[in-house]
């Protein structure tokens, strides 16, 4: 009725987003990811009822599920965390199509940064260079003595963790903790890269996260209002669920691998992605 008015702006679609990526109009893409991108690799997420980790910690007799990642509880009893670390330690699982899709965005020079909450290391395994990653909740790649703050490589802890022994600092005998960010700890300095990344992003892709944990969740609101946001997730989360969707918010609901496959088909990148996955798969096997 009122031609050109804000109310008449057409709702964007996955096809629109694909066209803009394909034509390289989107060249500074920021990805925000969570545990849902790794469930297709066999790693449980946290909050999905039934299969999520927080519903499956009975064996550890925790006072409440999140205690496994609470720093005060860790000082009291580190055993549950190290049991989980043994399971999650890099090497047990392999990246899936979702991780390789982000790697392909990088290879094409269109990824500005990937912000991940995951601690499984699958982004690095898929060949996304560490400088392109903000591992907001830390990594098993490095570790720190909880007493004298001596730094260690994650590999130096591998044997102890795999044998079920709590790793201790050779210098002061303090417990060495992988550099995973616990509730009650500060996020790594690199998290603040968002202050320069988000204002210049031209597309935000949010995938496999409930956007329940701050401050990470708020990043979804840190792009300019004119910037398209694409959610690929089983359910609507964060600003996509609040009902005041922007015309340039697009939600592709369902399994993340199916959603990414649909986008890849629209982009015409299927073959390239397959090649990347085959090469990556072989490299993983060779390790
Ligand atoms: P959550 O378990 O909270 O959310 C995972 C989201 O991914 C949910 O919305 C699921 O529906 C969705 N999902 C799972 N599998 C999927 C699939 N195959 N396809 C599509 N969607 C799928 O995990 P996060 O958001 O990552 O913190 O949790 C955030 C933080 O909470 C974690 O980093 C962790 C935890 O406490 C720390 O470890 C410090």
UniProtKB/TrEMBL annotation:
UniProt source species: Labeo rohita
Protein name: NAD-dependent protein deacetylase
GO cellular component terms, semicolon-separated: nucleus
Alphabetical UniProt keywords: Metal-binding, NAD, Transferase, Zinc
Deacetylase sirtuin-type domain segment(s): 7-270
CDD domains in the cross-refs: SIRT1
Family: Belongs to the sirtuin family. Class I subfamily.
Catalytic activities: N(6)-acetyl-L-lysyl-[protein] + NAD(+) + H2O = 2''-O-acetyl-ADP-D-ribose + nicotinamide + L-lysyl-[protein]
Function in brief: NAD-dependent protein deacetylase.
Signal sequence residues: none
Gene3D superfamilies in UniProt: SIR2/SIRT2 'Small Domain, TPP-binding domain
Binding annotation for Zn(2+): 145, 148, 169, 172
Name of one Pfam family that matches: SIR2
UniProt-annotated binding residues for NAD(+): 35-39, 45-47, 117-120, 209-210, 233-235
Obligatory cofactor(s): Zn(2+)
Top-rank lineage group of the source organism: Eukaryota
Residues of the active site: 137 (proton acceptor)
PANTHER family: NAD-DEPENDENT PROTEIN DEACETYLASE SIRTUIN-3, MITOCHONDRIAL (PTHR11085:SF5), NAD-DEPENDENT PROTEIN DEACYLASE SIRTUIN-5, MITOCHONDRIAL-RELATED (PTHR11085)
EC number from the UniProt entry: 2.3.1.286
Entry's Gene Ontology molecular function annotations: histone deacetylase activity, NAD-dependent; NAD+ binding; zinc ion binding
Taxon lineage: Eukaryota, Metazoa, Chordata, Craniata, Vertebrata
Cofactor: binding comment: Binds 1 zinc ion per subunit.
InterPro entries membership: DHS-like_NAD/FAD-binding_dom (IPR029035), NAD-dep_sirtuin_deacylases (IPR050134), Sirtuin (IPR003000), Sirtuin_cat_small_dom_sf (IPR026591), Sirtuin_class_I (IPR017328), Ssirtuin_cat_dom (IPR026590)
């Amino acid at each position: 009725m009122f031609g050109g008015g804000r109310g008449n702006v057409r709702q964007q679609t996955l096809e629109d987003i694909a066209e803009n990526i394909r034509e390289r109009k989107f060249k500074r893409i920021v990805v925000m990811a969570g545990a849902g991108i790794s469930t297709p690799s066999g790693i449980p997420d946290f909050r999905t009822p039934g299969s999520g980790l927080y519903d499956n910690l009975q064996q550890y007799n925790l006072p409440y599920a999140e205690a496994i990642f609470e720093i005060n509880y860790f000082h009291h009893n580190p055993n549950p965390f190290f049991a989980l670390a043994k399971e999650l330690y890099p090497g047990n699982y392999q990246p899936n199509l979702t991780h390789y899709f982000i790697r392909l965005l990088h290879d094409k020079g269109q990824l500005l940064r990937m912000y991940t909450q995951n601690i499984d290391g699958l982004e690095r395994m898929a060949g996304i260079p560490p400088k392109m990653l903000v591992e907001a909740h830390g990594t098993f790649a490095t570790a720190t003595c909880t007493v004298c703050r001596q730094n260690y490589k994650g590999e130096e802890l591998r044997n102890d963790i795999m044998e079920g022994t709590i790793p201790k600092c050779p210098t002061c005998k303090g417990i060495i903790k992988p550099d995973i960010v616990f509730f009650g700890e500060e996020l790594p300095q690199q998290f603040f890269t968002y202050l320069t990344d988000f204002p210049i992003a031209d597309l935000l892709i949010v995938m496999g996260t409930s956007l329940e944990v701050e401050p990470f969740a708020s990043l979804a609101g840190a792009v300019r209002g004119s910037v398209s946001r694409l959610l690929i997730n089983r359910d609507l989360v964060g600003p996509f669920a609040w009902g005041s969707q922007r015309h340039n918010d697009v939600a592709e609901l369902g399994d993340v691998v199916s959603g990414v496959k649909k986008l890849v088909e629209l982009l015409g990148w299927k073959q390239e992605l397959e090649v990347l996955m085959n090469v990556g798969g072989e490299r993983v096997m060779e390790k």
